[in-house]
């Protein structure tokens, strides 16, 4: 049983879904808060829609993942059947949409429902077709990392400058991570003629784009510290934590300039950096220091 649950966790990338859900909560907190019930619904919408997208991704990419020797994927290891992955994808996506309908009724917001439906539809298009187009898949993933904060802000009633900065940082970090993933998957991508940045422009150019994205995210992360009339203005609870995340991103940039690169390890490191960055925005919003 534990093995199956672990396989489902890996199939749906539950750690990513949790991060998307917490992104919604962070957006709510920064924008001024909401009721617990509404916040929980926002969290569940992000969690299940992304879980469905990731499960469908593994269903569609099984041959590619086998070619890339992605033994971190449960379908490749044979721990889940392909049909089970499709069923989980449909179930998770449907749950996310149902929660979005309930949320829209509670707070009387058609915009939030439409946004959830658009994200679910884009997720399906991404898994089925969008990967074949140059950089479109990278941009899609980056958008899904930025939208939760905006979604949370809209739930709470507004999106301010600090939320826009946070969303921009998430977009840049997400774009960089996806281009870095393309470098690692360049051989397998050739099987499906996926026009990734690494395949079209070469590995070195892809590395440069990744470093640029991370570096720009680091630069933007300092802006909230100087935003007057916000909780982040000269707030040490924010800047001291965000500098840790920045250090990790810069470390990855340095590592990318070397010949022998462990992209799997660097993706994990950037995921940790993103998590620390989220903690920084929460501490900045809640802790005056």
From TrEMBL:
Keyword 4Fe-4S: no
E.C. no: 2.5.1.42
Top-rank taxon: Archaea
Compartment(s): Cell membrane
TM stretches of this protein: 20-49, 84-104, 110-126, 133-156, 209-228, 234-254, 266-287
Gene3D superfamilies in alphabetical order: UbiA prenyltransferase
UniProt-recorded name of the protein: Digeranylgeranylglyceryl phosphate synthase
Taxonomic source organism: Candidatus Methanophaga sp. ANME-1 ERB7
């Amino acid at each position: 049983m534990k093995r199956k649950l672990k396989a489902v966790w890996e199939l749906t990338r539950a750690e990513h879904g949790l991060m998307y859900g917490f992104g919604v909560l962070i957006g709510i907190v920064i924008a001024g808060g909401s009721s617990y019930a509404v916040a929980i619904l926002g969290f569940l919408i992000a969690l299940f829609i992304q879980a469905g997208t990731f499960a469908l991704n593994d269903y569609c990419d099984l041959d590619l993942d086998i070619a890339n020797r992605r033994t971190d994927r449960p379908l490749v290891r044979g721990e889940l059947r392909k049909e089970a992955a499709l069923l989980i994808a449909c179930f998770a996506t449907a749950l996310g949409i149902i929660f979005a309908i309930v949320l829209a009724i509670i707070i009387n917001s058609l915009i939030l429902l439409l946004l959830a439906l658009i994200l679910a539809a884009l997720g399906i298009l991404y898994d089925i077709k969008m990967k074949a187009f140059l950089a479109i898949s990278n941009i899609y993933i980056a958008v899904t990392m930025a939208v939760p904060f905006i979604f949370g802000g809209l739930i709470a009633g507004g999106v301010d400058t600090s939320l826009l900065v946070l969303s921009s940082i998430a977009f840049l970090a997400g774009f960089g991570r996806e281009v870095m993933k393309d470098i690692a998957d360049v051989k397998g991508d050739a099987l499906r003629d996926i026009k990734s940045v690494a395949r079209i422009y070469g590995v070195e150019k892809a590395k440069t784009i990744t470093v640029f994205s991370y570096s720009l995210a680091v630069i933007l992360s300092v802006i909230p510290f100087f935003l007057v009339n916000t909780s982040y203005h000269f707030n040490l609870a924010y800047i001291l934590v965000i500098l840790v995340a920045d250090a990790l991103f810069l470390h990855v940039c340095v590592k990318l300039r070397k010949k022998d690169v462990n992209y799997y390890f660097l993706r994990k490191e950037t995921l940790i950096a993103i998590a620390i960055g989220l903690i920084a925005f929460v501490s900045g919003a809640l802790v005056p220091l």
